[in-house]
Amino acid sequence: MSLIFKILAIGLLHLVFFACYPETGALGNYYLGLSLLLWTIFIMFINTSTKLVKLISGLAGLVINLAAFGLMAFSIAATMPQRDKTSVLEKIQKGKYPDRDAINSGLLRFGINLDQGRAAVTKGLDRELGKAVKKLKEDQTK
User: Fold this and answer.
1) Based on C-alpha coordinates, what's the Rg of the chain?
2) Distance from chain centroid for Cα 71
3) In sequence order, what DSSP letters do the residues of 24-38 get, joined into one string?
C-alpha cells in the first residue's frame, strides 16, 4: 500500500465512525482533527518499518498494515467522545448499531444530505410516472 492510500484510508475510517455515531458533542471536531493527525503520524512511522519488513516477507508487511488499521479502529471506537458518555465500543458490544437517521445526521456534518437526493429521485419518478399515465390516457382515447 502506498502512503497516500493509507492516509486516505485513515480519513475514510474516521469518516465512517463519525458518520455512524455522530453524537460526539462539543469536543467531537477537536477529537477528529487530533485523531487524524496522530494516526497519520503513526502510519507514516509504521510505513517505514513495513517497507523494511516487506523486503523479507510481503505477507508480513500486509499483516502489520492490517494490524495497525485494526488498532486504529479499536482505539477510535474506545475513545471517541459521545454525549451519553457511552463509548462507541460499548455500543457495538451491546448491539446498538447506527440506524438510517443516525447515519443521515452524521453525514450532514460533512455536508452530505441523503434526504435531498432521495427527494430528487422521488420527484423525478413522479414526473416520469405522470408522463406515462398521460400517454396511456391519450392512447386509450384514440
Assistant:
1) 23
2) 17
3) --TTHHHHHHHHHHH
C-alpha cell at 98: 447506527
Contacts of 115 (CB under 8 A, 6+ apart): 104
Q: Which residues of 43-69 are buried (b: 16+ CB within 10 A; e: fewer)?
A: beebbeebeebeeeeeeebeebbeebb
Using an 8 Å Cβ cutoff, are 72 and 10 in contact? yes
pTM over 0.70: yes
pLDDT in tens, 42-86: 999 988 888 778 777 778 888 888 999 999 999 999 999 888 888
Q: Are 105 and 22 in contact (CB under 8 A)?
A: yes
* Cell numbers placing 16: 465512517
**Rounded to an integer, what distance in angstroms lies between the CA atom of residue 24 and that of residue 105?**
12
The distance of Cα 31 from the centroid of its chain, to the nearest Å, equals: 16
Contact 21/80 with Cβ under 8 angstroms? Answer: yes
Q: What does the alpha-carbon distance between residue 51 and residue 62 come to, in Å, rounded to a whole number?
A: 10
